Amino acid sequence: MTVSRRNVLLVGGLGMLGAGALAVPTRSVEAKSASELRDSDMPRPFRTPFVQAPVLQPHTRSVDPADGLPVHHYVVTERAARAQILPRAGLTTPILGYNGIFPGPTISLDRGTKAVLRVRNQLPSVHPLDGHILSTSTHLHGSASLPQYDGYANDVTNPGFYKDYHYPNFQPARSLWYHDHGVHYTALNAYSGLAAQYHLHDPLERALLPQGRFDVAVTISDAMFAEDGSLGYDDNSHSGLWGDVILVNGRPWPVMQVQKRVYRFRVLNACISRSLRPTLSTGDPIAIVGTDGGLVPSTQFVNNYRHAGAERYELLIDFRKYRTGQRVELRNLSNDNNVDYDYTHQIMAFDVVDEPVDTSDPTWNRVPAQLAVHNEVMALTPAQSTRTRRFELDRTNGMWTINDVTWQEVVASGYQKVAAEVAVDAVEIWEFENNSGGWYHPLHIHLVDFQILSRNGRSAFNYERGPKDVVYVGEGETVRLLMKFGPHKGRYMIHCHNLSHEDHDMMVQFRVGLKEGDPDPNDPMTAAPATWDDGSAPAPSPSPSPSPSPSATPTPVPSPSATPSPSPTPSPTPTPTPTPSPTPTPAPTKPGKGKGGGGKPART
């Protein structure tokens, strides 16, 4: 369906009317644009070089005396800055970023090396768009962290405070990401720039897949822009945001130069609401070698695949067959739940260059058939399940709900209301049914990796046959998941990763290994509160960081002496603002008269 720009702007205006004015979903809608930029200021595909975020180096290193494992200590500062995203020099975009960049710096470690991440909130006191206090809660998405370090939505760090997050890093190699998870403002804060990748390596993954400059982080997001270059924001009555500019690592539709060899891409969909369907312009197959929770048992070949918000897929693309000077595009076929614009069918491009290839690297021409054949999650069977639980995803009284429960009800219960109580090491089947009309829900379960058993009674798609922590629950779909709980006790969240849905109010929690009223030393609201940051605090202390149960702790892997940099290309470095004061710094602004909303028109 094609919609004129004027019609889209009028429909987009409905998104300003509040929660009661629900935009009705439809099949993929097409329109010219959403931004208010002058045409000459609007970015166009394939005119910007590809860049990557820098790799964050540890501030200090230590050894945990409790178990002898190495610990890396990092510091990131959340602050306001300006980024050169748009083509006109000087037309910069205010952002909120880890260390003032978007995406934030990548963290890269080996399995068995623990991390302590100090997050300093040096943001303005309030967000200039809507005046909410810029409190944040950092979630390492994909990590089996203790509850008090998991980014529990209401465990917030206010401006002027910091918090130390302890990450055990005992899981198999995987692509994780850290992002803001502050209650009710996750969408706006993440959209403003608080997101970054985090890579966990292990010997199997290092032996089988490309490393260093050929191991490439790709963070995809979308945005709309106001006339002054600031980010536009319209979540269409809390239904979703669809921008008309596709950003890859913070750059619009970039071009990457590639050698004639195999590359590995860690693709994160960091869009607030947009789902993707990546494909190559040549029609050649893409090799899927990893999902959210790490390597798949065996490589899966696809021509395209559905990629929900917050999902990570690791791809191998073999450029050996292409001629020097050939351009290969990574395109987006889109899905039924999007608002699409002139150029949202494109993501990035690869230009094949005639550089010498190091053929002594065994991964230069390798696309392995077998990978993590002994993955614990993928070895689970339904016969091991002790219980099946059912969850309905719906829209109730203007709020997004899970089993008719909202996060407001969890808060009102003193954080005791749970959707499930499970035992440590219990194996269960969880079934999610999407009854919300034409909306899809990227459903995220904290703490665990799971296996997708079926979708509408049929086998999972081949590209989903790996350990997952986000599942694409499409319109009218019912998915069945198999998972084992642990190793930690405590409360963890379940929510939709369409962040507009999460914020209003599609999130509940489950409790592991405890009953209501039991003492909870890992209570996320009390166990590790934020600390006032007066500027004199030392770097994170080398005190022991928490470990999983002994059975889950791997043999220590030597600390990498040369942590691979994702790419030799320079990183984007926006000019940072001075240390923020309580005076609000410009950030995303809502385009006037509903422009940029791309609200979903009623089905016709």
TrEMBL record:
<dbReference type="InterPro" id="IPR006311">
    <property type="entry name" value="TAT_signal"/>
</dbReference>
<feature type="region of interest" description="Disordered">
    <location>
        <begin position="514"/>
        <end position="604"/>
    </location>
</feature>
<dbReference type="GO" id="GO:0016491">
    <property type="term" value="F:oxidoreductase activity"/>
</dbReference>
<dbReference type="InterPro" id="IPR011706">
    <property type="entry name" value="Cu-oxidase_C"/>
</dbReference>
<feature type="domain" description="Plastocyanin-like">
    <location>
        <begin position="83"/>
        <end position="197"/>
    </location>
</feature>
<dbReference type="Pfam" id="PF07732">
    <property type="entry name" value="Cu-oxidase_3"/>
</dbReference>
<feature type="compositionally biased region" description="Pro residues">
    <location>
        <begin position="539"/>
        <end position="589"/>
    </location>
</feature>
<dbReference type="InterPro" id="IPR045087">
    <property type="entry name" value="Cu-oxidase_fam"/>
</dbReference>
<feature type="compositionally biased region" description="Gly residues">
    <location>
        <begin position="594"/>
        <end position="604"/>
    </location>
</feature>
<dbReference type="Pfam" id="PF07731">
    <property type="entry name" value="Cu-oxidase_2"/>
</dbReference>
<dbReference type="GO" id="GO:0005507">
    <property type="term" value="F:copper ion binding"/>
</dbReference>
<comment type="similarity">
    <text>Belongs to the multicopper oxidase family.</text>
</comment>
<dbReference type="InterPro" id="IPR011707">
    <property type="entry name" value="Cu-oxidase-like_N"/>
</dbReference>
<dbReference type="InterPro" id="IPR008972">
    <property type="entry name" value="Cupredoxin"/>
</dbReference>
<protein>
    <submittedName>
        <fullName>Multicopper oxidase family protein</fullName>
    </submittedName>
</protein>
<feature type="domain" description="Plastocyanin-like">
    <location>
        <begin position="415"/>
        <end position="513"/>
    </location>
</feature>
